[in-house]
């Protein structure tokens, strides 16, 4: 007559083996997003000085505004605007943008260096249109 192992012993052994394997696999560390980032994927350290570059990569002129520091400014195709942000003077900096022709646009975020935010604005085929970039108080960059 053959003896059978209790099923609890077998399941416990499998779980123990699985736990040992998971413990031995190095944890995956997510790289910070640097190119083609979505809203919330880029975060800066609150209080750091940040350089913001806004580039019109679309085919239509855009208006760009950073209240209360910068009134509406026209940004033609291929042109860019760059500014330094100091969070002490402006705790939640925002940039607003729109197509001169009132057509939808989208923003693509990038972080070419640790304290630089690059915003590329391009034509979109459909609504909803992106309208603003905001650096939240915790340092996250959001597109709205």
How does this structure look, described?
With 144 residues, the chain is mostly beta strands. The chain contains one helix and nine strands; from the N terminus they run H-E-E-E-E-E-E-E-E-E. The radius of gyration is 24 Å and the shape is globular.
Key phrases:
five-stranded antiparallel sheet; four-stranded mixed sheet; mainly beta; 144 residues
Walk me through the topology.
Elements: H1 7-24, E1 50-56, E2 62-66, E3 70-75, E4 80-85, E5 94-99, E6 105-113, E7 116-123, E8 132-135, E9 141-143
Parallel strand pairs: 1-7
Antiparallel strand pairs: 1-4, 2-3, 2-5, 5-8, 6-7, 8-9
Distance between the termini: 72 Å
Low-confidence stretches: 21-30
Number of helices: 1
| Radius of gyration of CA atoms, rounded to a whole number | 24 Å
Indicate the structural class.
mainly beta
**Sheet with the most strands?**
5 strands, antiparallel
Shape: globular
Q: Helix share of residues?
A: 10-25%
Number of strands: 9
Task: Please summarize what this structure is.
This protein is mainly beta and 144 residues long. The protein has one helix at 7-24; strands at residues 50-56, 62-66, 70-75, 80-85, 94-99, 105-113, 116-123, 132-135, 141-143.
């Amino acid at each position: 007559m053959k003896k059978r192992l209790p099923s609890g012993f077998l399941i416990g052994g499998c779980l123990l083996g699985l736990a040992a394997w998971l413990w031995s696999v190095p944890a995956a560390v997510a790289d910070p997003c640097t190119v083609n980032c979505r809203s919330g994927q880029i975060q800066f350290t609150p209080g750091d000085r940040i350089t913001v570059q806004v580039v019109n990569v679309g085919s239509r002129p855009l208006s760009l505004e950073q209240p209360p520091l910068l009134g509406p400014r026209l940004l033609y195709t291929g042109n860019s605007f760059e500014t330094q942000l100091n969070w002490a003077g402006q705790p939640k900096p925002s940039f607003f943008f729109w197509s001169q022709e009132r057509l939808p646009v989208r923003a693509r975020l990038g972080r070419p260096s640790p304290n630089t935010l690059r915003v590329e604005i391009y034509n979109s085929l459909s609504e909803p249109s992106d309208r603003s970039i905001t650096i939240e108080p915790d340092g996250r960059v959001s597109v709205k």
